[in-house]
Amino acid sequence: MPVPWFLLSLALGRSPMVLSLEKLMGPQDTARCSPGLSCHLWDGDVLCLPGSIVSAPGPVLVPTRLQTELVLRCHQETDCDLCVRVAIHLAVHGHWEEPKDEDRSGRAADLELEEPRNAFLQAQVVLSFQAYPTARCVLLEVQVPAALVQPGQSVGSVVFDCFEAALGAEVRLWSYTQPRYQKELNLTQQLPDCKGLEVQDSIQSCWALPWLSVSADGDDVHLVLDVSEEQHFGLSLYWNQTGPRNITLNHTDLFPCLCIQVWPLEPDSVRTSLCPFKEDPRAHRNLWRAARLRLLSPQGWQLNAPCLLLAEATLCWQAPGGGPCLSLVPPLSRENVTVNKTLELPLLNAHPNLCVQVSSWEKLQLQECLWADSLGALKDDMLLLETRGPQDNRSLCALEPSGCTPLLSQASTRAARLGEQLLQDLQSGQCLQLWEDDLRALWACPMDKYVHQRWALVWLACLLLASALFLLFLVKKNQVKGWLRLLKEDLRAGAVARGRATLLVYSAEDSGFERLVGALASALCQLPLRVAVDLWSRRELSAQGPLAWFHAQRRQTLQEGGVVVLLFSPGAVALCHEWLQDGASASAPHGPHDAFAASLSCVLPDFLQGRAPGRYVGAYFEGLLHSEAVPALFRSVPVFSLPSQLPDFLRTLQGPGTLRPGRLGERAKRVSRALQPALDQLLQPPGDPGDPEDGTRVGT
């Protein structure tokens, strides 16, 4: 049963996350004010001409904040359009001018005379609205009593109903006064579509909308569209990114920013957008697999990825031979790394051992030694940290996995043993400065000459040993020859006793065929051969899985110069034909221990690319399959009929010259006797213990 990945369907009914909207009846625009203010909406729209900013002659009303709310404007109960209600918050800007050339004692009397003229503070507020393809500007006159005027304080708000807009549209709002005393306010908002609003009974364009759900079943992703049979619709997969982009999509291209858009093929139809993979862990794994670190210049680097990433980058030092990458000063900026943006490294010089690590949620995701291609392989250099103190005092330590080791110390590390030499190298200018600030510096000192000195002593010891052995050989030549002859015989006997590695691969069709394969494997172990077969490795097979188990066994067998034996049966031939025709694994289910079905993904490329001869042989059992039934592709290697061609089969497995013809014939008879009971039982038809010839099965 598919596990729901992300389900979004308004057809399931009311949801606490769906918005229920207020309905406004009638087409008229209106305006209302908060208590204490008076306002008037001019009839019709006006021209949007902000003009230049001018100085305020005194206290003036200015807009300070825009606030929106979604409502429905309805012509009938079930015929509504989405509408944007806008609230403009107002405040007083500026101060009263101080009186000039008048005595302060008469100021109160003058204000009493002017109060009737300045009983109200008035402003003309323009509200501009844009949502493709609509653009409107309305004018509101607002008055506030002078008693409420306090410079810098809010005096209230005016609410405008409303601007009609399309579902899913992007709307932009501006507000300013005429004349304009400050920079205009602006607000951009993305309106929801049908799936985010409780409007399917009120807005007719949502009635016929295709409803979309997404679910996952293993590696398969299912998009389910709920549409009527006669409805035509469009479907689009797109990247939720800006700028032009070419997209090639396959099953590994599920990323968090991959979105789906669906709409009915009708004029001015509403489009539903869905980004179902934002939180899916598999999409995030795909995103990190696709991310790459790239060096742009000696000090510039970039993180390339299809989507935005929340990640942090650090600088580290990677020593040759593996081991952890040591974090360095200076650290890179701990701020989130911006994808596809060039970033600077705070370095004076580049070095192949300097690497960049990118982590997300404290988990290492990427590590790249950006200069490895341009500056060559990792170097065995010693990294020194210089710390500067007051009065030109400085200390030096070497960054090692165990910590920062002081150069002149009694520690048992390589840096401590070579401390004086490294200090001389630094003073003589043989070290490369990587970074520096007021208190610290990083140096990379080459260690090649010290490694060469050590190897020179090793070579000298080897030369002395070789000279001593040569003198011993001259003195006791006859005895040495006897020792060498005995050693050669021991090695040959050990190689024969050890046997050649052999991997048996078969299709587990039934228990009778498995018994036959087990009898063959047991007989081959007596030759001796080192036989590997999944019958004897069921615990490892269950733990690793058939594909991983076969891949490991095949690699080990071929590395040791062994051979892989393909045992063909009717089921194995059918599987091969399915792979060769469809280019994929067989659609029929196979047992959890069927290594043959898993092995085809590794075996077929060797045959198709001509690498099979000398590494593979084929075999089939007489009575179960004709030689013509073996696919032609596999006849590029020897294919043997068992048990009649057992001598040739064993000679191929053990290699030429390992056995005399007489002994080879004896071993073939021994293997044939071990196989015959299991083969006769398999060929005998069910319920008939009689003539074995009547139970012979012929595969085609």
Brief overview:
By secondary structure, the chain is an alpha+beta fold. It has 14 helices and 33 strands.
Please give a structural write-up:
This protein is α+β, with helices and mostly antiparallel strands and 700 residues long. Helices cover 26% and strands 31% of the residues. The chain has 14 helices and 33 strands. A five-stranded mixed sheet has the order 2-5-6-9-3, with no helix packed on it. Helix 8 (511-525) runs antiparallel to helix 14, helix 9 (538-544) crosses helix 10 (546-559) and helix 10 (546-559) packs across helix 12 (595-608). The longest helix is centred in the middle third of the chain and has 28 residues, at 448-475. It starts with a strand and ends in a 17-residue tail after the last helix.
Write the layout of secondary structure elements.
Elements: E1 3-6, E2 22-25, E3 30-33, E4 38-41, E5 60-76, E6 79-93, H1 107-114, E7 120-131, E8 134-145, E9 154-164, E10 170-177, E11 185-190, E12 211-217, E13 220-226, E14 233-239, E15 258-264, E16 272-274, H2 281-290, E17 292-297, E18 300-304, E19 312-317, E20 326-327, E21 343-344, E22 354-360, E23 363-368, H3 372-375, E24 381-388, E25 394-400, E26 403-406, H4 414-417, H5 419-427, E27 432-436, E28 440-446, H6 448-475, H7 477-498, E29 501-505, H8 511-525, E30 530-532, H9 538-544, H10 546-559, E31 563-568, H11 570-582, H12 595-608, E32 616-621, E33 639-642, H13 646-654, H14 661-683
Parallel strand pairs: 2-5, 29-30, 29-31, 31-32, 32-33
Antiparallel strand pairs: 1-12, 3-9, 4-8, 5-6, 6-9, 7-8, 7-10, 10-11, 12-13, 14-15, 15-16, 17-18, 18-21, 19-20, 19-22, 22-23, 24-25, 24-28, 25-26, 27-28
Helix pairs in contact: 8-14, 9-10, 10-12, 13-14
